[in-house]
Design brief:
The protein is mostly helical. The chain is built from seven helices and two strands; from the N terminus they run H-H-E-E-H-H-H-H-H. The chain has a two-stranded antiparallel sheet with strand order 1-2. About 9% of the residues have low confidence.
């Protein structure tokens, strides 16, 4: 950072750990540039934990559905807080959370009219293809069973031959 000696003297009195930046940038500046190149922060929606402004309270929302809001507690509005449900961050966060919750519940049982098998059903279907336990293909299948999308693709094939072919190709691709 380029600054005069007086500025550095005052700044280092407050933040002595910044002395390492006086003679040059951090060693990982290029990596930071790659990581944060497209990050733009305005502070418009910034909030400080424990900071109260105007004494207003806002509910902590669990559900994005305005008709069925559930309040689990209260928090004080911080600097820059707007109506929480109108915040773009809140909308994106809530959608992502709802997606994760639905994927978690979908992964434990058949969904979409029985089209996605459970892990146990998936491995049973693998055995029906003639794959024996203890083989490399069964090991790969057990890894694939952990992913809902893989189970859905596998179940979409109409014949045991095409399922076995997909398993073998996926096994070969994973072990290149």
């Amino acid at each position: 950072m380029d600054a005069d000696d007086d500025w550095w003297k005052n700044h280092l009195a407050i933040r002595p750990d910044h002395a390492k930046f006086r003679n040059g940038p951090p060693p990982n500046l290029e990596q930071q540039d790659v990581m944060f190149r497209k990050a733009h922060v305005t502070g418009e929606l910034a909030a400080i934990a424990g900071h109260e402004e105007d004494g207003k309270e806002a509910p902590i929302l669990l559900d994005d559905d305005q008709d069925a809001l559930k309040v689990t507690g209260k928090r004080k509005l911080g600097a820059g807080d707007k109506e929480i449900s109108q915040s773009p961050f809140f909308t994106v966060y809530n959608n992502a959370l709802n997606s994760l919750v639905s994927k978690h519940t979908e992964g434990s049982s058949c969904t979409n009219n029985g089209m996605v098998p459970t892990m146990k059903e998936f491995l049973g279907m693998v055995r029906e293809c003639g794959v024996s336990e203890g083989t490399d293909i069964m090991f790969t299948a057990s890894k694939l069973a952990m992913n809902r999308d893989h189970r859905e693709v596998f179940a979409a094939f109409a014949t045991t031959e095409s399922r076995l072919d997909w398993l073998k190709r996926t096994h070969d691709e994973m072990n290149k």
